């Protein structure tokens, strides 16, 4: 039916209109600088409103120091896949990514949530917000995306709860403290092997002692292998958008690597630099990574015209963490170009 509808629509456009507008709308590549959120502000609650799937997202704490006050909950920032679990009263359990993509490769988690819901005889459809964590991030992503892979060695760490009507509305007015109490009552009473409450504690950030406690906890979490910490206001509601009600603190590392190649971009970057291919050793680890973020349009143009000159130069790269690949080699998570380190190949300044 969808195919036939597209064929009928295509006959209403000439080739240029089809290629430049209709086709790009269908493949979600219109690139006109607007999102579903922008359109929905205009469309309101009309029949044309675009359905969206959104969760609460955290803001980087480094940009909001004045928001770091009051009583907050500190939790480790888990290195996993954000997951929304919906337990329906009829016994159905569905798992979704933060963008609404269905996860079908974690049946053991869905079954344990179903058992949990049955023990409590739910009076309403329930939403659990959390993170699925595996033995490694690479294995977890393979388990989440490959249809023929069942990831049984993964756990669901839950950090929030609400009913489905509130989630669909995009707002749960119960504050963080009360939601945590409800979540603790639901989960902690039962010894489910793969469902866990996220550890954490409350701290008052209105004074210097609280900030000292937070800093020490953040450093401890990083040493234990976590990405950083989450900072959540206990008096705040749950909102399905990015908010300072939740903030994240993550360390930033810098690594100096040598440019060994330059790759041409695709799409809007065709004909200019797409990514710097970088290699080098840091703390005894051989790292190879493609760096395509942090580059301005003028960087992409000028670097591409000088591509033969740039091989061998040292570049400073910002990243979240050094990661290990399945073959034992190393890379960087979220690498961003910062600057060249010298004027000559191999030079550091």
Q: What gap, in angstroms, lies between the N and C termini? A: 62 Å
CA-based shape: globular
Low-confidence stretches: none
Radius of gyration: 24 Å
The residue fraction in helices comes out at: 25-40%
Q: Output the structural class.
A: alpha+beta
Strand line-up in the sheet with most strands: 5-4-3-6-7-9
Number of strands: 20
Number of helices: 10
Task: Output mean pLDDT.
Answer: 88
Largest sheet, in brief, is: 6 strands, mixed
Q: Roughly what fraction of the amino acids lie in strands?
A: 25-35%
What is the succession of H and E elements?
HHHEEEEEHEHEHEHEEHEEEEEEHHEEEE
Written account of the structure:
- This protein has 349 residues and is α+β, with helices and mostly antiparallel strands.
- It is 28% helix and 33% strand.
- Strands 5-4-3-6-7-9 form a six-stranded mixed beta sheet. The chain has a five-stranded mixed beta sheet with strand order 1-13-11-2-10, with helices on one face. Strands 16-15-14-17-20 form a five-stranded antiparallel beta sheet.
- The protein is globular.
- The N and C termini lie far apart (62 Å).
- The model has no long low-confidence stretch (mean pLDDT 88).
């Amino acid at each position: 039916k969808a195919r036939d509808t597209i064929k009928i629509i295509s006959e209403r456009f000439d080739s240029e209109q089809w290629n430049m507008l209709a086709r790009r709308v269908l493949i979600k590549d219109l690139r006109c600088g607007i999102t579903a959120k922008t359109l929905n502000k205009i469309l309101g609650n009309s029949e044309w409103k675009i359905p969206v799937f959104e969760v609460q997202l955290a803001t980087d704490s480094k940009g909001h120091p004045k928001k770091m006050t009051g009583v907050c909950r500190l939790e480790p920032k888990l290195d996993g896949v954000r997951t929304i679990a919906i337990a329906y009263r009829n016994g159905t359990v569905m798992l979704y990514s933060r963008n609404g993509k269905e996860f079908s490769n974690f049946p053991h988690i869905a079954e344990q949530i179903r058992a949990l819901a049955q023990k409590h005889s739910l009076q309403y459809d329930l939403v659990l917000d959390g993170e699925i964590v595996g033995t490694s991030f690479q294995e977890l992503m393979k388990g989440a995306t490959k249809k023929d892979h069942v990831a049984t060695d993964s756990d669901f760490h839950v950090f929030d709860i609400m009913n489905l009507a509130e989630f669909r509305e995009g707002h749960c007015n119960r504050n963080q403290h009360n939601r945590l109490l409800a979540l603790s009552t639901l989960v902690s009473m039962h010894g489910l092997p793969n469902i866990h409450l996220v550890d954490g504690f409350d701290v008052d950030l209105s004074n210097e002692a609280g900030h000292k406690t937070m800093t020490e906890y953040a450093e401890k979490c990083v040493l234990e292998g976590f990405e950083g910490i989450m900072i959540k206001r206990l008096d705040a509601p749950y909102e399905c958008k990015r908010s300072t009600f939740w903030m994240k603190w993550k360390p930033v590392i810098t690594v100096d690597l040598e440019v060994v190649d330059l790759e041409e971009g695709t799409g809007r970057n065709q004909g200019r630099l797409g990514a710097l291919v970088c290699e080098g050793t840091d703390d005894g680890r051989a790292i190879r990574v493609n760096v395509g973020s942090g580059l301005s349009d003028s960087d992409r143009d000028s670097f591409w015209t000088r591509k033969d000159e740039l091989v061998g130069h040292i570049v400073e790269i910002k990243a979240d963490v050094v990661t290990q690949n399945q073959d034992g080699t190393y890379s960087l998570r979220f690498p961003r170009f910062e600057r060249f380190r010298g004027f000559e190949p191999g030079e550091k300044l």
